[in-house]
Design goal:
By secondary structure, this protein is α/β, with parallel strands linked by helices. The chain contains 34 helices and 25 strands. 49% of the residues lie in helices and 15% in strands. Helix 10 crosses helix 12, helix 14 packs across helix 15 and helix 23 runs parallel beside helix 24. Bound molecules: ligand 26W.
Length: 823
Amino acid sequence: MMNQAFDKEEFKKQVASKVKSLYRKTIDEASMQQVFQAVCYTIKDQIVDEWMATHEAFRENDSKIVYYLSMEFLMGRALGNNLINMGAYGGVKEALSELGIDLNVVEDQERDYALGNGGLGRLAACFLDSLATLGYPAYGCGIRYKYGMFKQEIRDGYQIEVPDDWLKNGNPFEMRRDEYTYEVKFGGTVRAEQKPDGNYTYIQENCQSVLAVPYDLPIIGYGNNVINTLRIWDAEPVNTFCLESFDRGDYQKAVEQENLAKTIVEVLYPNDNHYAGKELRLKQQYFFISASVRAAVDRYKNLHGGDVHHLYEKVCFQMNDTHPTVAVPELMRVLMDEEGLGWDEAWDITTKTCAYTNHTIMAEALEKWPIDLFSRLLPRIYQIVEEINRRFMAEIRSRYPGNEEKVEKMAILYNGQVRMAYLAIVGSFSVNGVARLHTEILEKQELKDFYEMMPQKFNNKTNGITQRRFLLHGNPLLADWVTEKVGDGWITDLRKISGLIPLADDPACREQFRQIKRQNKVRLAKYIKEHNGIDVNPDSIFDVQVKRLHEYKRQLMNIMHVMYLYNKIKENPQLDIVPRTFIFGAKAAAGYHRAKLTIKLINSVADVVNNDPQVNGKIKVVFIEDYRVSNAEIIFAASDVSEQISTASKEASGTGNMKFMLNGALTLGTMDGANVEIVEEVGAENAFIFGLSAEEVIRYENNGGYYPMEVYNSDPDVRKVLNQMIDGTFSGGDKELFRELYESLLNSWGGGRPDCYFILKDFRSYADAQKRVDAAYRDQEWWAKAAILNVAHSGKFSSDRTIQEYVDDIWHLEKVTVNMDEE
Ligand code: 26W
């Protein structure tokens, strides 16, 4: 493989020949985009043997395969990561530089594959990297959206959404696989037909349909020749619009089918943690699930003489949240209607094949499809869901006789809705949360009834991240330093990074660490200057909150603290504080008004603070436009403080928190999600923890909330900040602009409780923690030590560890080895 056998001269030759055959140019004449394309095609040629060999190994070993079903894969850029995992990054860098080309510039030609919103989508991408690196047979199954997550522009402080035409220049790594096309049916009616054996078969008629055409992307394992596949489905019309249909009077239908194909994969829904109930979204779900499930069943049948009875021994469907839950009834349909199995047999197989991961307890995120919509769009699937529900209700009644309240609470079909989470739980053999605290809350609160009835299904899998992208690729300076100190074992076994622990006490190592952090801050400062036109001081504390914008994540509390600090400086311009740069990056869902208003507030505060001569560089506020995977890599590397300040109990896990830790930032956070486990690993003395506990938050919630007005009345600093939202201080005199935010904190705007995310309740505790950050940073020796200890204790948070736990407890896969002997 390229690992051992990277041939620089050969590589240069091939790139030159690709540039020639693709563009009729020499390398010198080619644009950087053309060089980028040529480099990618060259790499694709080089990995195709391993890709084939991997699949050959799956067949030879009759491997069990996990199909990771996900509406989102937030891959970021492929080129750099592929080169790293092939072991060719250094070689290619050298080869290109001999041609006078900078690999970083070539990498910058690539668009992010932004086929996801945030945490859930990025987790899927990290999991694919770990699965391939550990050598486990896996497919990612998703949708080839024409437009991914929108590109964010900031104009006049407001977010503007620009379509993400990521395929404009083509995708050199993808491979269209027409031969694995499936037809997917929507709507129409179901007719039961009696077969000769007396059983019934069900036929969906008068329906619309589209073709699902798969595109495969290689997922390259690190240094092991294993190449897994991400299969994303595109939609095409069944027969392109033709006169024939017109003649037959099917004109309308032909147009409709063409439109369906066009719209179904048009765009990723940009909602994070918010269910909108859009018909097209349900179509997307069934579209990719039907194709993926049937592809998996067909592959299994081909290898096992057409008999599906032992499917679960070789296939596992892992459902990434409830979005792919139609996999349960779809597999039932395939097993019964297409394979001729009876209900009991089919149910036994299905519930041994499907597993479900829950990623959120936010009530507004729960998918509940209206039955009329669901049954109209998926008539046969709905019949099956009805029967699943009927049998499940009977089970509840026999388990809890006379307890109709239980039945109502747990029914899959209730109040005119299909409760997807309940369908997922009932149809799966495993239900997991994504951090210890989150799983506990599921078991004790949100899914209590289900946990009581079927405790054996429940388990925790604390999330993780891939160190190959977020340290090795994103932070080469620190990666090299770690390797110099503890060897390169950490790249595939992050626990080995604990070898750094003793170095935290070595002043020379601390100095080296500080230098690296400083260089990374200079790199980010340069990025900010280029993209925002703002000068930031690399010697200030880089205090960073980057994540989706959501009320529960409390970016509002962060910017309110900046307002508070600004007021303190105005009261006393001599105020002794360590210079701080508050950095934000966040996309708001396009229809989430309050979140977008928070972005405007951040930018408005930035304008005032950054341009006030009295502030004199003590604090700066920067909003980084279009936060995404590729600039995240640069941001994590440069951070000192990691803001993880969600209302306790609301953030299921968080994964950004782990990326900061790995890059030596100190956590400023609540005891929420995986923060709890981060603090457990690194020690509370090396983090800044504040705020209500999850238990306290839940107790308040169960008792009708709290009175934010009491905080307003008793705390003059908080009162001043709140008043500034409605006195025009940060809005050029406009008193109405931010009123909604003010009201949401004090008087409940648009219904609900005021300050339901406990911002005012936690504010003092947060400000105190910020003071501790300031004090701690003055002791540079202490800070460097704590930062190194954060890196050193990040071993648990590799997605390699997470994946190994999924394999041991849920998937039960066996590793494959792929030997590429030189011929
Ligand atoms: C139906 C609308 C919708 C869309 C996306 C509902 C829910 C989602 C996701 C579940 C939101 C999400 O990304 N959740 C995040 O998942 C991460 C990976 O497990 C966790 O680290 C985050 O805490 C969680 O918010």
